[in-house]
UniProtKB/TrEMBL annotation:
GO terms for molecular function: acyl-CoA dehydrogenase activity; flavin adenine dinucleotide binding. It comes from Pandoraea captiosa. This is Acyl-CoA dehydrogenase. SUPFAM superfamilies: Acyl-CoA dehydrogenase NM domain-like. InterPro entries: Acyl-CoA_Oxase/DH_mid-dom_sf, AcylCoA_DH/ox_N, AcylCoA_DH/ox_N_sf, AcylCoA_DH/oxidase_NM_dom_sf. Pfam families: Acyl-CoA_dh_N. Residues 26-117 form the Acyl-CoA dehydrogenase/oxidase N-terminal domain. The lineage of its organism: Bacteria, Pseudomonadati, Pseudomonadota, Betaproteobacteria, Burkholderiales.
Length: 379
């Protein structure tokens, strides 16, 4: 472990799950740069009880709310962004089941997801981009006639990017267009379903321990038992605050870690950036409070624009904090194995591109403003 990675100002995970915190600190570099530990992440997160946070007790969870789950993602991101991204995928998938009207699907998968035996992956970037009219859905379902008249489909298509496709077993959420018409559905597709192929891990510049690969479906049979929702657009609007809130948790943790890292610089370096660090810390506190309140009160379901603005502000804050850490770290940050500074630069580079990407959100906000202007002018 590098001196940098056992920062004494960090408290969350080091207090609540010290064994996991230590494991992540020791292996953060490996989790980012290769896949040797990729099978261990989900079981380790489960072992620390993190997958049950915010899940009702009667469903096998630890209770609490989605905001507590956001905190766990942030806490893990302070130590390893790759592990936090895996946690995001797993916990978001769990949230899909909690918010699905399909009780049988939930009861079938939830126990194995909560104890970390099964990995949950969310392949809904395509669906989010579809909602914003950026691209068509990439998976199509054809109706199949069954003897007992039950609804069934064969699906074909693929997802180019999907994280937490753990080779030992996964279930992935994907949005599917129906050839017969009607609103798209979201299905939970199991790794062993006929016609499902996982590619080799993608050749990423970082986050290589996250089981990120492409997924292909060829004539994969699915039934109503596999369906998360039969109305993807309406359901996604309701789930989006949790999806994005958990995703923003990664930014909260990374920004916190970089700001804490600026204190490792010498007194001169610390003094030079003290005002900027204080301003960013205050901004981070404000954004954290706003995010949690908005998600908890359900405010972002009807006003997604305020959540989009928060996501953009947090991404910018991550960038600024990571840059300050580089400045205070000096040459030490440019040497291998002495700090996590270079790794956090790579981690920070991912924040603007994960869907919904910053450019996508900026365009959406601009379109909303233009629409508002047109409405005001017409009145
Ligand atoms: C390491 C890694 C892990 C990932 N894991 C997952 C995962 O688990 N699940 C998942 O679903 N996805 C995942 N993704 C995909 C990710 O969320 C983004 O969707 C993807 O990186 C962006 O797609 P693209 O590069 O094909 O964008 P492109 O379609 O090539 O577009 C480039 C950029 O422009 C934006 N853009 C394109 N058209 C418009 C437009 N008309 N208006 C505004 N903006 C536009 C896009 O949002 C994107 O930011 C992952 C990506 C990476 C790099």
């Amino acid at each position: 472990m590098s001196a940098d990675d056992s920062h004494d100002s960090l408290h969350g995970l080091a207090t609540h799950a010290p064994a996991l915190a230590g494991w992540l600190d020791t292996h953060a570099e490996t989790l980012d740069t290769d896949a040797t530990l990729s099978a261990d992440v989900v079981p380790r997160l489960a072992g620390a009880g993190l997958l049950r946070v915010g899940v009702p007790v009667e469903l096998g969870g630890a209770g609490g709310s989605i905001v507590d789950a956001i905190d766990t993602v942030a806490d893990v991101a302070e130590h390893s962004f790759a592990a936090a991204f895996v946690l995001w995928g797993q916990r978001t998938f769990i949230e899909y089941l909690l918010q699905s009207p399909n009780r049988r699907l939930r009861d079938r998968h939830l126990p194995a997801l909560l104890c970390g035996e099964l990995a949950g992956a969310t392949g809904l970037s395509n669906a989010m981009k579809y909602l914003s009219a950026i691209e068509p859905l990439q998976i199509r379902a054809t109706n199949v006639v069954t003897d007992d008249g039950a609804r069934a489909w064969r699906v074909n298509g693929g997802l180019p990017w999907i994280t937490n496709l753990r080779k030992q077993g996964f279930v992935a959420a994907a949005a599917v267009d129906h050839e017969a018409g009607g609103p798209p559905s979201i299905f939970a597709i199991a790794h062993h379903a006929p016609g499902v192929t996982r590619s080799d891990d993608l050749d990423l510049i970082g986050l290589r321990g996250t089981n990120t690969a492409a997924l292909q479906m060829a004539d994969t049979p699915l039934t109503d038992d596999d369906r998360v929702t039969d109305d993807a657009p309406a359901w996604l609007v309701r789930v989006r605050p949790a999806f994005l809130g958990l995703q923003c948790g990664m930014s909260l943790g990374l920004a916190r870690r970089s700001l804490a890292g600026t204190r490792d610089g010498g007194p001169g370096a610390r003094a030079a950036v003290a005002d900027e660090v204080a301003a960013l810390t205050e901004q981070l506190d404000t954004l954290t409070a706003r995010l949690k309140a908005g998600v908890l009160q359900g405010e972002f379901v009807d006003t997604p624009a305020s959540l989009f603005k928060l996501r953009i502000a947090l991404a910018e804050l991550v960038h600024d904090a990571a840059s300050l850490e580089v400045q205070t770290g000096g040459g030490r940050g440019y040497l291998r194995g002495l700090s996590g500074i270079a790794r956090r630069q790579r981690e920070a580079a991912f924040v603007p591109i994960v869907t919904p990407s910053l450019v996508q959100l900026k365009n959406q906000l601009a379109a909303q403003r233009a629409q508002q202007l047109r409405t005001e002018t017409a009145q």
